[in-house]
Amino acid sequence: MATIILGIETSCDDTAAAVLVDGKLRANVVSQQLEHENYGGVIPELASRAHVERIAAVVETSLSRANIDKKDLTAVAYTQGPGLLGSLLVGNAFAKSLSLALNIPLVAVHHMQAHLLVHFIDDSFPTPRFPFLGLTVSGGHTQLVHVDHASSFEVLGETLDDAAGEAFDKTGKMLGLPYPAGPNMDKYAALGTSKFTFGKPTVAGLNFSFSGLKTSVLYFLRSAQDKDPDFIKNNLYDLCASIQAAIVAILLEKVKTAVKQTGLKQVVLGGGVSANSGLRKALEALDVELFLPPLPYTTDNAAMITMAGHLKYNEGALDNLSSEPKARMSI
User: In what helix (H) or strand (E) does residue 146 lie, and over which residues does it extend?
Assistant: First the structure.
Protein backbone atom coordinates (compact mmCIF):
# COMPACT_ATOMS: atom_id res chain seq x y z
CA MET A 1 0.00 0.00 0.00
CA ALA A 2 1.37 3.40 -0.97
CA THR A 3 2.60 5.87 1.63
CA ILE A 4 0.93 9.19 0.82
CA ILE A 5 2.03 12.27 2.77
CA LEU A 6 0.45 15.71 2.61
CA GLY A 7 2.72 18.52 3.78
CA ILE A 8 1.70 22.04 4.82
CA GLU A 9 4.05 25.03 5.09
CA THR A 10 2.99 28.34 6.70
CA SER A 11 6.10 29.51 8.55
CA CYS A 12 6.20 33.01 7.08
CA ASP A 13 4.43 34.61 4.13
CA ASP A 14 3.98 31.72 1.67
CA THR A 15 1.03 29.36 1.95
CA ALA A 16 2.11 26.01 0.53
CA ALA A 17 1.05 22.38 0.31
CA ALA A 18 2.60 19.33 -1.37
CA VAL A 19 1.90 15.64 -1.82
CA LEU A 20 4.42 12.79 -1.87
CA VAL A 21 3.52 9.24 -2.89
CA ASP A 22 6.12 6.68 -1.78
CA GLY A 23 8.66 9.47 -1.57
CA LYS A 24 7.94 10.82 -5.06
CA LEU A 25 6.64 14.36 -5.44
CA ARG A 26 3.20 14.48 -7.04
CA ALA A 27 2.25 18.11 -6.39
CA ASN A 28 3.86 21.23 -4.95
CA VAL A 29 1.66 24.33 -4.67
CA VAL A 30 2.77 27.73 -3.34
CA SER A 31 0.65 30.86 -2.92
CA GLN A 32 2.92 33.87 -2.49
CA GLN A 33 1.89 36.94 -0.52
CA LEU A 34 3.26 39.67 -2.75
CA GLU A 35 1.50 42.42 -0.83
CA HIS A 36 4.35 42.55 1.71
CA GLU A 37 6.64 44.10 -0.89
CA ASN A 38 4.75 47.36 -0.38
CA TYR A 39 5.95 47.50 3.25
CA GLY A 40 9.59 46.58 2.72
CA GLY A 41 9.20 43.40 4.79
CA VAL A 42 6.72 40.84 6.06
CA ILE A 43 3.87 42.14 8.24
CA PRO A 44 3.04 39.24 10.63
CA GLU A 45 -0.65 40.06 11.08
CA LEU A 46 -1.25 40.37 7.35
CA ALA A 47 0.62 37.13 6.75
CA SER A 48 -1.46 35.11 9.21
CA ARG A 49 -4.72 36.49 7.81
CA ALA A 50 -3.67 35.62 4.28
CA HIS A 51 -2.84 32.05 5.37
CA VAL A 52 -6.35 31.67 6.81
CA GLU A 53 -7.85 32.87 3.53
CA ARG A 54 -5.72 30.64 1.29
CA ILE A 55 -4.83 27.42 3.06
CA ALA A 56 -7.95 25.42 2.24
CA ALA A 57 -7.69 26.22 -1.48
CA VAL A 58 -3.93 25.52 -1.57
CA VAL A 59 -4.36 22.12 0.09
CA GLU A 60 -7.27 21.23 -2.19
CA THR A 61 -5.28 22.24 -5.26
CA SER A 62 -2.31 20.11 -4.22
CA LEU A 63 -4.52 17.04 -3.71
CA SER A 64 -6.24 17.65 -7.04
CA ARG A 65 -2.97 18.01 -8.95
CA ALA A 66 -1.67 14.84 -7.32
CA ASN A 67 -4.92 13.07 -8.19
CA ILE A 68 -5.24 12.01 -4.55
CA ASP A 69 -8.40 11.82 -2.44
CA LYS A 70 -7.82 13.09 1.08
CA LYS A 71 -9.25 9.80 2.41
CA ASP A 72 -6.22 8.02 0.95
CA LEU A 73 -3.67 10.08 2.90
CA THR A 74 -1.29 8.13 5.14
CA ALA A 75 -0.21 11.10 7.27
CA VAL A 76 -0.16 14.89 7.33
CA ALA A 77 3.05 16.82 7.99
CA TYR A 78 3.26 20.50 8.88
CA THR A 79 5.81 23.14 9.82
CA GLN A 80 5.92 23.35 13.62
CA GLY A 81 8.55 26.09 13.61
CA PRO A 82 10.52 28.22 13.69
CA GLY A 83 8.68 31.12 12.09
CA LEU A 84 6.00 33.74 12.67
CA LEU A 85 3.75 32.42 15.42
CA GLY A 86 0.50 33.64 13.85
CA SER A 87 1.40 32.03 10.53
CA LEU A 88 2.48 28.78 12.19
CA LEU A 89 -0.79 28.59 14.12
CA VAL A 90 -2.77 28.46 10.89
CA GLY A 91 -0.85 25.48 9.52
CA ASN A 92 -0.85 23.77 12.90
CA ALA A 93 -4.62 24.06 13.27
CA PHE A 94 -5.32 22.92 9.72
CA ALA A 95 -3.01 19.90 9.97
CA LYS A 96 -4.49 18.88 13.31
CA SER A 97 -7.99 19.14 11.88
CA LEU A 98 -7.08 16.83 9.00
CA SER A 99 -5.33 14.40 11.31
CA LEU A 100 -8.34 14.22 13.60
CA ALA A 101 -10.98 14.09 10.86
CA LEU A 102 -9.16 11.43 8.80
CA ASN A 103 -7.73 9.55 11.78
CA ILE A 104 -4.20 9.67 10.35
CA PRO A 105 -0.84 10.39 12.03
CA LEU A 106 0.48 13.91 12.46
CA VAL A 107 4.15 14.68 11.76
CA ALA A 108 5.65 17.92 13.08
CA VAL A 109 8.55 19.20 10.96
CA HIS A 110 11.31 21.63 11.83
CA HIS A 111 11.52 24.18 9.03
CA MET A 112 15.33 24.36 8.93
CA GLN A 113 15.71 20.58 9.04
CA ALA A 114 13.42 20.42 6.03
CA HIS A 115 15.68 22.79 4.09
CA LEU A 116 18.41 20.13 4.34
CA LEU A 117 16.19 17.07 3.88
CA VAL A 118 14.74 18.46 0.64
CA HIS A 119 17.82 16.96 -1.03
CA PHE A 120 16.21 13.52 -0.75
CA ILE A 121 13.17 14.47 -2.82
CA ASP A 122 14.26 13.78 -6.38
CA ASP A 123 16.17 10.89 -7.94
CA SER A 124 17.20 13.11 -10.84
CA PHE A 125 20.01 14.70 -8.82
CA PRO A 126 22.48 13.19 -6.30
CA THR A 127 21.31 12.76 -2.71
CA PRO A 128 23.56 12.83 0.35
CA ARG A 129 24.18 9.91 2.69
CA PHE A 130 23.91 10.13 6.45
CA PRO A 131 25.86 11.47 8.27
CA PHE A 132 26.67 14.79 6.60
CA LEU A 133 27.52 18.41 7.37
CA GLY A 134 24.67 20.82 6.73
CA LEU A 135 24.94 24.58 6.19
CA THR A 136 21.59 26.35 6.55
CA VAL A 137 21.53 29.97 5.42
CA SER A 138 18.36 32.04 5.38
CA GLY A 139 16.91 35.36 6.44
CA GLY A 140 16.52 34.18 10.02
CA HIS A 141 19.10 31.42 10.46
CA THR A 142 22.72 30.61 9.77
CA GLN A 143 23.87 27.28 11.19
CA LEU A 144 26.38 24.51 10.71
CA VAL A 145 24.73 21.21 11.58
CA HIS A 146 25.91 17.62 12.01
CA VAL A 147 23.10 15.47 10.57
CA ASP A 148 23.12 11.81 11.66
CA HIS A 149 19.70 10.89 10.26
CA ALA A 150 16.32 12.43 9.47
CA SER A 151 15.48 13.01 13.13
CA SER A 152 18.94 13.70 14.56
CA PHE A 153 20.53 17.14 14.10
CA GLU A 154 23.31 18.66 16.19
CA VAL A 155 24.15 22.35 15.87
CA LEU A 156 27.91 22.83 15.64
CA GLY A 157 27.79 26.59 15.20
CA GLU A 158 25.29 29.35 14.56
CA THR A 159 25.06 33.10 14.17
CA LEU A 160 25.42 35.13 17.33
CA ASP A 161 23.45 38.05 15.89
CA ASP A 162 22.20 38.64 12.33
CA ALA A 163 21.68 35.78 9.91
CA ALA A 164 23.37 35.79 6.51
CA GLY A 165 20.12 36.52 4.69
CA GLU A 166 19.39 39.36 7.08
CA ALA A 167 22.83 40.80 6.36
CA PHE A 168 22.11 40.72 2.64
CA ASP A 169 18.73 42.41 3.06
CA LYS A 170 19.88 45.09 5.51
CA THR A 171 22.99 46.08 3.60
CA GLY A 172 20.96 45.96 0.40
CA LYS A 173 18.50 48.39 1.95
CA MET A 174 21.42 50.74 2.64
CA LEU A 175 22.11 50.64 -1.10
CA GLY A 176 18.51 51.45 -1.90
CA LEU A 177 17.63 48.00 -3.22
CA PRO A 178 13.97 46.92 -2.96
CA TYR A 179 12.83 44.19 -0.57
CA PRO A 180 13.95 41.45 -0.58
CA ALA A 181 17.38 42.83 -1.36
CA GLY A 182 19.29 39.53 -1.46
CA PRO A 183 18.32 38.39 -4.98
CA ASN A 184 18.95 41.85 -6.42
CA MET A 185 22.34 42.06 -4.75
CA ASP A 186 23.29 38.70 -6.24
CA LYS A 187 22.23 39.87 -9.70
CA TYR A 188 24.17 43.15 -9.48
CA ALA A 189 27.21 41.48 -7.90
CA ALA A 190 27.66 39.45 -11.09
CA LEU A 191 28.13 42.76 -12.95
CA GLY A 192 30.66 44.22 -10.55
CA THR A 193 34.06 43.66 -8.97
CA SER A 194 34.85 43.05 -5.31
CA LYS A 195 37.01 46.14 -4.89
CA PHE A 196 35.88 47.43 -1.46
CA THR A 197 36.83 45.85 1.87
CA PHE A 198 34.83 45.81 5.09
CA GLY A 199 35.44 44.81 8.69
CA LYS A 200 35.71 41.08 9.25
CA PRO A 201 34.32 39.54 12.49
CA THR A 202 36.48 37.50 14.84
CA VAL A 203 34.30 34.77 16.32
CA ALA A 204 35.60 31.71 18.14
CA GLY A 205 34.71 28.18 17.10
CA LEU A 206 32.13 27.53 14.41
CA ASN A 207 29.79 30.39 15.28
CA PHE A 208 29.06 33.26 12.91
CA SER A 209 28.56 37.01 13.24
CA PHE A 210 27.29 39.45 10.64
CA SER A 211 26.29 42.52 12.66
CA GLY A 212 29.81 43.95 12.57
CA LEU A 213 29.93 43.62 8.81
CA LYS A 214 26.61 45.44 8.55
CA THR A 215 27.98 48.28 10.72
CA SER A 216 31.19 48.41 8.70
CA VAL A 217 29.21 48.81 5.47
CA LEU A 218 27.08 51.54 7.05
CA TYR A 219 30.06 53.65 8.18
CA PHE A 220 31.87 53.06 4.88
CA LEU A 221 28.87 54.33 2.89
CA ARG A 222 28.41 57.36 5.15
CA SER A 223 32.03 58.36 4.73
CA ALA A 224 31.99 57.80 0.97
CA GLN A 225 28.77 59.74 0.49
CA ASP A 226 30.13 62.70 2.46
CA LYS A 227 32.76 63.00 -0.27
CA ASP A 228 30.51 62.01 -3.18
CA PRO A 229 26.71 62.10 -2.76
CA ASP A 230 26.36 59.86 -5.84
CA PHE A 231 28.83 57.26 -4.58
CA ILE A 232 26.28 54.44 -4.25
CA LYS A 233 24.72 55.14 -7.62
CA ASN A 234 28.10 55.27 -9.34
CA ASN A 235 29.46 52.15 -7.63
CA LEU A 236 26.35 50.02 -7.09
CA TYR A 237 27.56 46.90 -8.88
CA ASP A 238 30.97 46.94 -7.19
CA LEU A 239 29.38 47.55 -3.80
CA CYS A 240 27.07 44.56 -4.28
CA ALA A 241 29.99 42.39 -5.37
CA SER A 242 32.09 43.50 -2.38
CA ILE A 243 29.35 42.97 0.21
CA GLN A 244 28.44 39.58 -1.22
CA ALA A 245 32.09 38.53 -1.24
CA ALA A 246 32.44 39.52 2.41
CA ILE A 247 29.37 37.53 3.51
CA VAL A 248 30.41 34.50 1.48
CA ALA A 249 33.95 34.65 2.92
CA ILE A 250 32.58 34.49 6.47
CA LEU A 251 30.47 31.44 5.60
CA LEU A 252 33.26 29.71 3.69
CA GLU A 253 35.82 30.07 6.47
CA LYS A 254 33.54 28.32 8.98
CA VAL A 255 32.60 25.55 6.54
CA LYS A 256 36.28 24.78 5.95
CA THR A 257 36.90 24.64 9.69
CA ALA A 258 33.87 22.41 10.26
CA VAL A 259 34.95 19.96 7.56
CA LYS A 260 38.40 19.74 9.11
CA GLN A 261 37.10 19.28 12.66
CA THR A 262 34.36 16.76 11.91
CA GLY A 263 35.97 14.82 9.09
CA LEU A 264 32.66 14.96 7.22
CA LYS A 265 33.30 15.29 3.50
CA GLN A 266 29.69 15.73 2.42
CA VAL A 267 28.44 19.33 2.66
CA VAL A 268 24.74 19.93 2.15
CA LEU A 269 23.44 23.46 1.55
CA GLY A 270 19.93 24.62 2.39
CA GLY A 271 17.85 27.74 3.00
CA GLY A 272 16.88 30.81 1.01
CA VAL A 273 20.44 32.12 0.69
CA SER A 274 21.46 28.79 -0.88
CA ALA A 275 20.22 30.32 -4.15
CA ASN A 276 23.03 32.89 -4.03
CA SER A 277 25.34 32.28 -6.99
CA GLY A 278 28.41 33.65 -5.21
CA LEU A 279 27.99 31.24 -2.31
CA ARG A 280 27.40 28.31 -4.64
CA LYS A 281 30.54 29.04 -6.66
CA ALA A 282 32.66 29.43 -3.53
CA LEU A 283 31.45 26.12 -2.08
CA GLU A 284 31.98 24.34 -5.38
CA ALA A 285 35.68 25.22 -5.14
CA LEU A 286 36.06 23.27 -1.87
CA ASP A 287 37.49 19.77 -1.74
CA VAL A 288 34.22 18.22 -0.56
CA GLU A 289 31.25 16.33 -1.97
CA LEU A 290 28.83 19.21 -2.30
CA PHE A 291 25.03 19.02 -2.54
CA LEU A 292 23.26 22.14 -3.78
CA PRO A 293 19.46 22.30 -3.73
CA PRO A 294 17.65 22.94 -7.03
CA LEU A 295 16.64 26.61 -7.13
CA PRO A 296 12.86 25.94 -6.79
CA TYR A 297 13.57 24.30 -3.41
CA THR A 298 15.72 27.08 -1.96
CA THR A 299 12.80 29.30 -0.95
CA ASP A 300 10.07 28.23 1.46
CA ASN A 301 7.98 25.43 -0.03
CA ALA A 302 5.89 22.50 1.09
CA ALA A 303 7.84 19.92 -0.90
CA MET A 304 10.63 20.07 1.68
CA ILE A 305 8.14 19.80 4.55
CA THR A 306 6.51 16.78 2.94
CA MET A 307 9.87 15.09 2.30
CA ALA A 308 10.97 15.64 5.89
CA GLY A 309 7.57 14.34 7.04
CA HIS A 310 7.97 11.26 4.86
CA LEU A 311 11.41 10.45 6.29
CA LYS A 312 10.26 11.06 9.88
CA TYR A 313 7.13 8.95 9.32
CA ASN A 314 9.31 6.06 8.13
CA GLU A 315 11.37 6.40 11.31
CA GLY A 316 8.22 6.42 13.46
CA ALA A 317 8.88 9.99 14.62
CA LEU A 318 5.21 10.97 14.91
CA ASP A 319 3.51 13.79 16.78
CA ASN A 320 0.14 14.13 18.49
CA LEU A 321 -2.72 16.61 18.75
CA SER A 322 -1.17 18.29 21.80
CA SER A 323 1.72 19.64 19.71
CA GLU A 324 2.02 23.39 19.50
CA PRO A 325 3.70 25.70 16.99
CA LYS A 326 6.94 27.33 18.13
CA ALA A 327 8.23 30.64 16.86
CA ARG A 328 11.67 29.63 18.07
CA MET A 329 12.90 26.08 18.39
CA SER A 330 16.22 24.29 18.40
CA ILE A 331 17.02 22.28 15.32
Answer: strand 142-149
